[in-house]
Amino acid sequence: IPCSLAHFRRGISSSDMMNMHLEYSHTVSEVRTHVLSLLDRHSTVLGSYTWTEFDDEFLAKNVESVSVADLTGPKLVDLKVHNLCIHIFSLNDDSPSMLALEEEEELSAANHWLLPAGDYLLDYVSTTIFFSDRNVDSNLIAWNRVVLLHGPPGTGKTSLCKGLAQKLSIRLSGRYAHSQFVEINSHSLFSKWFSESGKLVTKMFQKIQELIDDKDALVFVLIDEVESLTASRSAAQAGTEPSDAIRVVNSVLTQLDQIKRHPNVVILTTSNVTEKIDLAFVDRADIKQYIGPPSASAIFHIYLSCLEELMKRHIIYPRQQLLSLEELGTMNFMESDVTRLSLTLRNLAQRSVGLSGRALRKIPFLAHALYGKSSTLTVEGFLKAMERAVDKQRQEQASLVNCV
Description:
Shape: globular
Largest sheet: 7 strands, mixed
Family: Belongs to the AAA ATPase family. PCH2 subfamily.
Protein name: Pachytene checkpoint protein 2 homolog
CATH architecture of the largest domain: 3-Layer(aba) Sandwich
Structural class: alpha/beta
Distance between the termini: 50 Å
Keywords: ATP-binding, Differentiation, Meiosis, Nucleotide-binding, Nucleus, Oogenesis
InterPro entries: AAA+_ATPase (IPR003593), ATPase_AAA_core (IPR003959), ATPase_AAA_CS (IPR003960), P-loop_NTPase (IPR027417), Pch2-like (IPR044539), Pch2_C (IPR058249)
Strand content: 5-15%
Number of helices: 13
Number of strands: 13
Oligomer: single chain
Number of domains: 3
Subcellular location: Nucleus
Low-confidence stretches: 6-25
Radius of gyration: 24 Å
Mean pLDDT: 83
């Protein structure tokens, strides 16, 4: 079932089909009424569609965007047939607070956000909550509420974790009044004093436990580069890792086993070097998903979002319509005056396969910095600059490999 998402400029939620921003003073019912009116005026939408301009005065004044997203099944969605699930949300603009282990300590052990700031992962979390609601005996059917995303650097593992938390906080806003996101700063949990690191880990999880005790809160805990806290104990015993690392791993495993009893917590972890992680932690992860470099279609969407932003800021001018892959597909990818620029972007995306997500996001900046002839470029001129930037990135990447 497609969903409709509504997004307050300061404070509510989203899900599958729509994404909007509103003023704080307007109620959820007002938003829902105007969104339904917008949908009633459209019979069908193609793929992941987004409205950013509205005829409705209320929407034009208060709403930033309405997006169709996370569709399953046919790309052409008949809005007259589907029962839409509308979610309304707003982003929290506050900076993360610091979660210190002791009141007198200046070193932050974690960053803490209020939220909202891959579908199977969403289904995974939904199932953990569903099983808990049905009081399924976890001694007979085990789940640990731990997800491990692994793969090379720069492929978006951390961003995916944050995006997953964001989306779940919106989807489950009817179940949980608010959501919390805690990003553990692993380096701050290591002490110069022998045996103290394990105690710091325990204190950190005690702070997290305080958040979990609020049953109206959905709590996400992100441990980035989890190998730093779960280094293989066999390596420590062999003398290649500090012996204090064993205490840290033991403490982490103990704390994970304790908090998994709570239905309102999800542990999200990432790693670039899974071979260094203790097998006991890997075994506790319910999902172990490899995240590789973006595919050509994913790169196309990344570039398209970048170009839309630059056109919005008049760095690319004049604005020209770029088609989505779904729209190009309906035209059989045939070249015409309408499709020419979009097909050029598609070819550029295919040439960019192999670059990390982090590198891809830099391409538009490098294109303008290195090859932009003026402060403002046309779409065609900017695409040519991006092609040169991609070639330069590939040359630099090859040079680094040859130097290793």
